[in-house]
């Protein structure tokens, strides 16, 4: 059986943190727009810092904690978790979905699902993790707003358009 992993894509270069939180939330049954998470996390033109990520995760109903870890400890963390990585001078977040003796499977909001060797992951990982587990207040569900729900709020305006000759 092939395991499928969730990956919410980022909308722009500053959205990786919010997209990672949306990915973890969706893995636990909560659909929420990246734009909403950006607001909770205080995302600005430089992106989202770890404190903003933790505060947004708590707002969504997760117990969240930032830790510094070693590669050998990745097998004991709750999954999915968020890892801070660097690519040259760029700061980035990815979601760790699976850890094996040889590989680490991540959801990269810029590239999709990526399977990396442990050495490849170690080369970009800063050692920072955001560990997330649903708290007692966590509620799964769909908080996304469909196009039809958005249009429904404009119904009075549309009805006058249909009536006029």
Task: Provide a descriptive summary of the structure in words.
By secondary structure, this protein is of the alpha+beta class. It has one domain: Alpha-Beta Complex (Cathepsin B, Chain A), CATH 3.90.70. It has helices spanning 16-27, 34-41, 50-59, 118-124, 147-152, 155-163; strands at 30-31, 62-68, 81-87, 90-99, 103-108, 112-117, 125-134, 141-142. The strands form 2 sheets. Strands 2-7-3-4-5-6 form a 6-stranded antiparallel sheet, with helices on both faces. Strands 1-8 form a two-stranded parallel ribbon. 33% of the residues are buried. The mean pLDDT is 90.
Topology record:
Elements: H1 16-27, E1 30-31, H2 34-41, H3 50-59, E2 62-68, E3 81-87, E4 90-99, E5 103-108, E6 112-117, H4 118-124, E7 125-134, E8 141-142, H5 147-152, H6 155-163
Helix pairs in contact: 1-2, 2-3
Descriptive terms for the model:
single chain; 165 residues; alpha+beta; Cathepsin B, Chain A; 6-stranded antiparallel sheet; two-stranded parallel sheet; 6 helices; globular
Query: In CATH's first tier, which class applies?
Result: Alpha Beta
DSSP helical segment count: 6
CATH topology: Cathepsin B, Chain A
Distance between the termini: 59 Å
**Shape, principal axes of CA atoms:** globular
Let me know the CATH homologous superfamily. Answer: Cysteine proteinases
Mean pLDDT across all amino acids: 90
Domains (count): 1
Q: Which spans of ≥5 residues are poorly predicted at pLDDT below 50?
A: none
Using only CA atoms, what is the Rg?
A: 18 Å
User: How are the strands ordered across the major sheet?
Assistant: 2-7-3-4-5-6
Strand portion: 25-35%
Structural class: alpha+beta
The main sheet comes to: 6 strands, antiparallel
- Helix/strand order, N-terminal first: HEHHEEEEEHEEHH
> Architecture in CATH?
Alpha-Beta Complex
Amount of helix:
25-40%
